[in-house]
């Protein structure tokens, strides 16, 4: 922790900003391992296997529609990961806005980021002990780690405006996402070796999966040390004067932010668009491994290799879209990305069983578009936020971020439970991209940036 007085963007020279931006990018590298190895690849299929064992499924590879009891509700084992992800996001919807308001009042954003990250990694490490039919431990671990990961991301995103100018944010965010995809891909590659060749290490496949889950927690916690040490504190802006303790002051800041939102209709329009299209993106990413294994018949090794391919393609996709945004504008690139996602979902619906080549072609398309739309959404949204409210606004943004979207996962789980097939479940996700594009078309980006008090970049 630094003893320096908090500083602002005006106090940073271009060289200092660049150093802070590099330090900031390290957290993308750190936490992407959790989202990739745990949420995107291994947790869903492994939870279905463990819960299916508890439900009495005799074949670990079957599409298990037998149920387990959760608080008196009988849920299909095949839908359980979707419901857990949905519950984690609903819980986060109550927690994250308060955390965001707290972050806005603080000059110690990096401390909050690291503390939440380390607590989340501790819960994620408990997934190592999910074995036999003990799905309950895994359920608690993934819900708590997901909520804490969201809390850490609120602090992390709120620092973007502290370390970059309006003109720099697309490039900074794109580099961060690219760095995250690369980091998540590197660990996934190591886990691929472990899961494919467990006998080489004297272990069975299930232990290899559990060790891979543990490795993501260790990676997340370990690499968080770098931004924690190198980032500086930054002074809070326009803090609302409220009497009382930390919790009361945070709620006061949050209430003021909600009252203020009516002044920024374009910001809310983009947030609504993002809620829909990002729900679709996150559910496609989340469901890819389950869809590939349970519907298309691919073994875990193919799924890990496919997600690994997506990670490395997304690394290039984020950088590529960042360059295109400098020429054509982030808004136009995001809008075009939503239409590309519609085509991807329709293509996934018609994938034949066990056709690896076509599956990989769709994966490449996912990687290119995913890298660009996610990176530019973060930087574009930062331009629509009034200074001093980054934490509160990014807490709402984060509610729809990465693996914590709940509309999509809930719809995916319900459609599967009703139909017994993952094909109609994957097709149902196209509605999120249609709605996202609809609201993006209603957005006036230049007006929104000016209303927030930020400078309009030369390209939109």
From TrEMBL:
Its membrane topology: Multi-pass membrane protein
PROSITE patterns: MFS (PS50850)
Transmembrane as UniProt keyword: yes
PANTHER family noted in UniProt: AUTOPHAGY-RELATED PROTEIN 22 (PTHR23519:SF1)
Subcellular locations according to the entry: Cell membrane
Major facilitator superfamily (MFS) profile domain mapped to chain residues: 266-460
Keywords: Membrane, Transmembrane, Transmembrane helix, Transport
Keyword Protease among record annotations: no
Organism for this UniProt entry: Nocardioides scoriae
Transmembrane domains' residue ranges: 83-104, 111-129, 135-158, 179-201, 207-229, 268-288, 300-321, 333-351, 357-376, 396-416, 422-441
GO molecular function annotation: transmembrane transporter activity
Protein name: MFS transporter, UMF1 family
Annotated Gene Ontology cellular component terms: plasma membrane
């Amino acid at each position: 922790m630094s003893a320096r007085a908090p500083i602002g963007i005006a106090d940073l020279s271009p060289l200092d900003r660049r150093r802070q931006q590099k330090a900031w990018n390290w957290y993308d590298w750190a936490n992407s391992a959790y989202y990739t190895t745990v949420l995107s690849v291994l947790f869903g299929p492994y939870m279905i296997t463990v819960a299916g064992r508890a439900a009495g499924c005799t074949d670990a590879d079957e599409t298990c529609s037998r149920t387990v009891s959760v608080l008196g509700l009988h849920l299909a084992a095949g839908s359980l990961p979707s419901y857990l992800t949905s519950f984690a996001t609903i819980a986060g919807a109550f927690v994250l806005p308060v955390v965001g308001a707290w972050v806005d009042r603080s000059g110690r954003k990096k401390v909050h980021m690291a503390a939440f990250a380390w607590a989340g990694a501790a819960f994620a490490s408990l997934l190592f002990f999910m074995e036999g039919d003990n799905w309950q431990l895994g359920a608690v671990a993934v819900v708590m780690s997901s909520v804490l990961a969201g809390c850490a991301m609120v602090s992390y995103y709120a620092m973007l405006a502290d370390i970059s100018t309006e003109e720099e944010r697309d490039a900074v965010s794109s580099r961060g996402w690219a760095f995250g995809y690369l980091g998540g891909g590197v660990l996934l590659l190591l886990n691929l070796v472990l899961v494919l060749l467990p006998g080489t290490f004297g272990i069975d496949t299930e232990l290899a999966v559990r060790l891979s889950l543990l490795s993501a927690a260790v990676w997340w916690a370990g690499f968080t040390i770098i931004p924690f040490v190198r980032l500086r504190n930054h002074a809070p802006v326009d803090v609302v004067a409220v009497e009382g303790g930390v919790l009361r002051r945070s709620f006061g800041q949050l209430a003021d932010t909600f009252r203020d939102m009516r002044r920024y209709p374009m910001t809310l329009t983009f947030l609504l668009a993002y809620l829909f299209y990002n729900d679709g993106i996150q559910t496609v990413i989340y469901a890819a491994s389950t869809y590939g294994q349970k519907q298309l018949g691919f073994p875990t090794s193919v799924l890990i290799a496919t997600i690994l391919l997506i990670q490395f393609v997304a690394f290039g996709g984020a950088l590529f879209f960042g360059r295109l945004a400098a020429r054509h504008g982030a808004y136009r690139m995001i809008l075009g990305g939503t239409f590309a996602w519609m085509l991807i979902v329709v293509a996934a619906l018609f994938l034949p069983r066990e056709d690896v080549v076509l599956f990989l072609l769709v994966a490449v398309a996912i990687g290119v578009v995913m890298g660009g739309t996610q990176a530019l959404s973060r930087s574009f949204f930062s331009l629509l936020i009034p200074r001093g409210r980054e934490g509160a606004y990014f807490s709402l943004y984060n509610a729809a971020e990465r693996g914590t979207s709940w509309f999509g996962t809930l719809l995916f789980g319900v459609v599967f439970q009703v139909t017994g097939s993952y094909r109609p479940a994957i097709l149902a996700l196209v509605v999120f991209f249609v709605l996202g594009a609809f609201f993006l078309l209603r957005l006036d980006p230049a007006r929104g940036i000016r209303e927030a008090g930020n400078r309009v970049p030369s390209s939109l």
